[in-house]
Amino acid sequence: MSSGNGELLAEMRTLRDRVAGVTDLALAAVDGLLITADAEDGLDTESLAALAAAALGLARRAGQATGKGLLHRTVAQFSHGYVVVQPVGRMGLMTVLGDSGLDVARLHTESQAAAERIDRLLTAAPQA
What we know:
- It is a single chain.
- By secondary structure, the protein is α+β, with helices and mostly antiparallel strands.
- 44% of the residues lie in helices and 27% in strands.
- The chain contains three helices and six strands.
- It has a six-stranded antiparallel sheet, sandwiched between helices.
- A hairpin with a 3-residue loop joins β5 and β6.
- It starts with a strand and ends with a helix.
- The mean pLDDT is 92.
């Protein structure tokens, strides 16, 4: 059900445990390359990471074009759930998938703190 760095996964799992309705999470670099994921088998997390990077880029550009400031997250609501993408520092992005019962308000509160902790882990990692 999961792959990747243990500390990053622990942060992602804590977020999932603290927010009702979160089903899957993926962490990627801003260029869309998957870093790690905590997701159901069968979910193409590599493609999800690339799509999330594209969505984040579009949202950032829309914010710049409209003068709305820095992007905090994008939220897409569908008939069967949500896709939420948010920046993680300057290096990453986190994608959260949720079912139709996702507690979006709680996610907004909890994901900011999780993103800060994940960013610290990413920036502390040795550079290749």
